[in-house]
């Protein structure tokens, strides 16, 4: 068309098109068609001393209060430095000196942090559907509405976790073995693959730690954000030190699965039949199994069996993938699975006089 060649006409048409685009954008925004969603991340709500942050782990910048750390970002504290991070839900992550953490995943419901070194304290605020996890040297700590402390010694390959309130589930990774343990208030667990005595040691939180400057500061910070803090005596009292049985799934950044627990203990050894549930987990590239515990006095071992051919596996006819004499052992992560393959599982209990009873059968396709 010849009139389009006229420069004035071309400029006029360009202006009209731009105005139309702006008008449509404003209209869509008003009607909810375009929304500015806040970027999920952890805010640096307080800091003291030298604190650095990095988006790639190579180039580090001086941090400041108000900086938002999104997925992939790291935070590092120097000597005599501290920092506090706040999650979208309001949980508090406090870093001691010489500590480094990385934000692996964060949104309104899910938080996954990687602790590379140092010590952190976590005051967790979460709803029932939320998942809050920390990975320290490949071990995963999952909060169950709690407060806990993590110390990581990368050089010694050792992790120590102390539970100050509530409980946590810990997925311990040792070679190809993954075992989930539930730790309650007043207890601490040390994971040390190099230990000659025990690779996983459970103990009571010491009074020395409970009265330390680090713990005193964290108690004061908890009070500032509205938490009622138990006294040191309540933390250390014998009743609070008991380790509760595990009732939730092993850590997963996707969902929380509760293990059905019998309303009453089995009346006799012959009825000890653990109820098993399982699901595929993309984060761990595995199948997570959970089962109800056995309270029979005749209990001796759990034997978890798996088959790819037999839909009705049992012990001792089928391969055992994990075994334990711990009555509270109720979770397992099966990482030896292949895509598009169906696996059949069952939990059997070995009781006194070599009596064997098995629970329900399940199949899970990975």
The major sheet is characterized as:
15 strands, mixed
- Helix content class: 10-25%
Total strand segments: 22
Query: Mean pLDDT, nearest integer?
Result: 81
**Class of the largest domain in CATH?**
Mainly Beta
Strand content: 35-45%
Helices and strands: which structural class? Answer: mainly beta
CATH architectural arrangement of the largest domain = Sandwich
Instruction: Indicate the overall shape.
Output: globular
Please provide the ordered H/E string of secondary-structure elements: HEEEEEEEEEEEEEEEHHHEEEEEEE
Q: CA-to-CA gap between the ends?
A: 62 Å
Query: What count of helical segments does DSSP give?
Result: 4
> For the CA atoms, what is the radius of gyration?
26 Å
Uncertain stretches: 238-270
Tell me the domain tally: 3
CATH T-level topology of the largest domain: Jelly Rolls
């Amino acid at each position: 068309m010849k009139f389009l060649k006229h420069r004035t006409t071309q400029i006029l048409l360009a202006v009209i098109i731009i105005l139309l685009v702006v008008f449509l954008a404003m209209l869509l925004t008003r009607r909810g068609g375009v929304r500015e969603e806040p970027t999920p991340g952890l805010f640096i709500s307080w800091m003291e001393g030298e604190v650095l942050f990095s988006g790639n782990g190579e180039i580090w910048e001086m941090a400041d209060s108000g900086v938002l750390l999104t997925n992939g970002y790291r935070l590092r504290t120097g000597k005599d430095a501290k920092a506090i991070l706040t999650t979208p839900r309001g949980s508090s992550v406090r870093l001691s000196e010489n500590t480094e953490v990385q934000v692996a995943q964060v949104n309104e419901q899910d938080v996954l942090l990687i602790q590379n070194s140092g010590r952190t304290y976590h005051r967790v605020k979460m709803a029932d559907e939320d998942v809050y996890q920390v990975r320290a040297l490949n071990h995963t700590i999952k909060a169950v509405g709690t407060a806990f402390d993590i110390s990581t010694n990368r050089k010694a390959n050792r992790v120590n976790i102390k539970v100050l309130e509530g409980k946590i589930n810990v997925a311990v990774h040792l070679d190809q073995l993954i075992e989930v343990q539930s730790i309650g208030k007043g207890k601490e667990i040390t994971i040390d693959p190099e230990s000659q005595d025990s690779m996983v040691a459970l103990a009571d939180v010491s009074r020395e730690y409970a009265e330390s400057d680090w713990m005193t500061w964290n108690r004061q910070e908890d009070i500032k954000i509205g938490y009622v803090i138990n006294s040191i005596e309540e933390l250390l009292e014998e009743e609070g030190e008991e380790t509760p049985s595990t009732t939730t799934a092993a850590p997963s950044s996707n969902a929380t699965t509760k293990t059905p627990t019998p309303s009453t203990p089995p009346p006799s050894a012959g009825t000890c039949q653990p109820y098993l549930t399982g699901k595929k987990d993309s984060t761990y590239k595995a199948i997570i199994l959970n089962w109800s515990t056995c309270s029979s006095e005749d209990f001796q071992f759990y034997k978890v069996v798996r088959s790819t051919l037999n839909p009705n596996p049992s012990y001792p006819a089928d391969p055992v993938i994990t075994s334990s004499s711990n009555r509270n052992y109720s979770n397992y992560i099966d990482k030896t699975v292949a895509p598009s393959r169906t696996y059949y599982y069952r939990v059997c209990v070995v009781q006194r006089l070599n009596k064997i009873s098995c629970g329900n059968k399940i199949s899970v396709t990975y």
